[in-house]
Amino acid sequence: MHNATRTPRVVVVGAGIGGLVSALVLAHRGLDVTLVESANQPGGKIRQVQVGGVGVDSGPTVFTMRWVLDQMLEALGTSLESILTLEPMGVLARHAWDASPQTLDLFSDTRRTADAIAQFSSPQEARRFLNFCQQTRALYDTLEKPYIRSERPSLFSMVNDLGLTGLATLTGLGPFASLWRSLGRHFHDPRLQQLFGRYATYCGSSPWSAPATLMLVAQVELDGVWSVKGGMFQVASALANLGHSHGVKSRYGVACAQIMTAQGRVCGVQLSTGEIIEAEHVIFNGDVSALAGGLLGPTLKTSFKPVRPQQRSLSALTLSMHAKTSGFPLVRHNVFFNQDYRAEFDDIFHKRQLPSQGTVYVCAQDRDDTGLAQAEAERIFCLVNAPADGDTHPFNLSEIQACESSSMALMRRCGLAIDVLPQQVVRTLPQDFAQRFPGSGGALYGQATHGWMSAFRRPSARSKVPGLYTAGGSVHPGPGVPMAAMSGRLAAATLMEDLGLTKLSRRVVISGGMSMR
Question: Model's pTM, two decimal places?
Answer without folding.
Answer: 0.93
